[in-house]
Amino acid sequence: MRLFSCEGCGQLLYFENWRCEACGRLLGFLPDRGVLTALEADGTVLAAPQTAYRFCQNNGLGVCNWMVAQNQPEEFCVACRHNHLIPDLSVPGNDRLWARIEAAKHRLFYSLLRLGLPLENRADNPDHGLAFDFLADPSAPHAQGVMTGHNNGLITLALKEADDVVREKVRREMGEPYRTLLGHLRHESGHYFWDRLVAPDEALRNSFRALFGDDRADYGAALKAHYAQGASADWQQSHISAYATSHPFEDFAETWAHYLHIVDTLETAAAFGLKVRPRLARGHIAATIDFDPYDSRRFDQIIEAWLPVEFATNSMNRSMGLSDLYPFLLSEKVIEKLGFVHALMWLPMVLRQTAAHNLIEPLRPSLA
Predict the structure, then answer these.
(1) What share of the chain is helix, strand, coil (3-state, %, to 5)?
(2) What's the confidence (pLDDT) of residue 145?
(3) What is the pLDDT of residue 283?
C-alpha cells in the first residue's frame, strides 16, 4: 500500500481514513489515480482540482470513501460495483460487520487495480463477472451456516468472519496460523483469476499442473480426504499452507493470496523507506526496498527483498508478545509457485486469455 498525505496540511493518512485528523478535511480515494485525496469545503478534490468527482453511493451507508468521476454514469465506485448481495442492514450490528468487510475488500481492489487485472462485474459479464455476496447465517434453528467460497465468479463471505472473536475461534479450531478478512478475499479472488487467466489456455494449464498438480482431480473427494486425514508431515517443503495441500485449486488460491500479501506489504515498506540491515547477520539478510513491487518484472527482486522484511517484522511482533506477522515458510518449491503467479501478472492484457507457454518461461524466478 502506498503512503498518503493530506494535500491541505501534510498529515500522513491511513488508507481507511475518511477525514484528516489534523485539519478536518474530508478524504476520498480516486481509483483512477490511485490516490487518497483531501477535499475542500466546496467539494474541490485537491489531487485533481480540474476534475469533478462524487462519492460512491455506499458512502452514505458509511462503508466506502471511494469516488467516481462526475462524467461517469455509475452510482457506485469501481469496487462496490462488484457487490451482489449485502447483509440485511435492519439487523443490529450487521452494518458494523459489513463495514469491516468493505475495508478489506477495498484493500483487495487497490491491489487488483495496481496490477491491472481484468475486473468485469456482473453488469459487464452476467455469467462470469466477479461478484460478492456478504451473507449472515440464517436465523432458523439447525439451518446450515453460510460457507465462504467461490463459484463461477461469485465470492461468498460469511458475515460472521468479520467478528474478531468468531474468526479467532475458527482459526484455532482449524489449526491455522493466520486468518483475516483480507486473507479470505485474496484467497477467493485467486479462484476467480485462475478461471480468468489460467483455465482458458492449454499451455498455461500444463505449466500449472507441472507445479501445482492436476486440477482435474475430484475436488469434493480431495477436500473430504484432507479434512479426514490432514496434510502430510512434510507439507512445508512444497506448499505455503496445510490447506494448500488439499487440491491444486486451493494451492493456487493460497499462493495467489500470499503473492498479494507480499507485494502489498513490500509497497508499504518502500513507502516508509524501510531498510533492513541487521548488524549481527552474516548471510544475505539485508534489503533496501527502493523499487515499486507492483511494477517490478523481476520476481527475484521481490523475493530477495521480502525475506529480510519478513524476518524483521516477525522479530518486532515477537518483541510485543505477538505471533509472527508472517508465520509461513517459503520453501524453494513455494517460491517457484509464487513466481508462476508473478508471471501471470506480466502477461500482456491482450494475451491473457490466449497466453503461450513461452511467455511464462522467461519470467520464472531463478532459484540458483
Answers:
(1) 45, 10, 45
(2) 87
(3) 59
Task: Using the structure block, give the residue that is written with the C-alpha cell 481492489.
Answer: 109
Q: CA 351 → CA 108, 195, 345, distances in Å?
A: 24, 15, 11
* pTM higher than the cut 0.70: yes
Cα 353 to chain centroid, rounded: 22
- Outline where 26-128 has alpha helix (H): 94-114
What is the enclosing helix (H) or strand (E) of 245?
none
DSSP 8-state symbol, 144: P
**Element of type H or E holding 313:** helix 299-319
Residue 227, SS3 per DSSP: helix
| Cα gap 54→70, rounded to integer Å | 6
User: For 73, phi and psi rounded to 5 degrees?
Assistant: -80, -15
**What's the burial of 254, exposed, middle or buried (CB within 10 Å: 0-12/13-18/19+)?**
buried
- Collect all residues with Cβ–Cβ distance below 8 Å to 276 and sequence separation of at least 6: 285, 286, 287, 288, 308, 309, 311, 312
Residues pairing with 131 in the sheet = 154
pLDDT in tens, 66-90: 999 999 999 999 999 999 999 999 9
Helix (H, G, I), strand (E, B) or coil at 328: coil
The predicted-structure confidence for 140-190, as pLDDT tens digits, reads as follows: 776 678 999 999 999 999 999 999 999 999 999 999 999 999 999 999 999
Residue 158 phi, psi dihedral angles, 5° rounding: -65, 130
To the nearest 10°, the Cα dihedral for 49, 105, 345, 291?
60
Rounded to a whole number, what is the distance in angstroms from the first to the last CA of the chain?
30
Distances (CA, A) of 97 to 100, 162, 255, 338: 5, 5, 27, 32
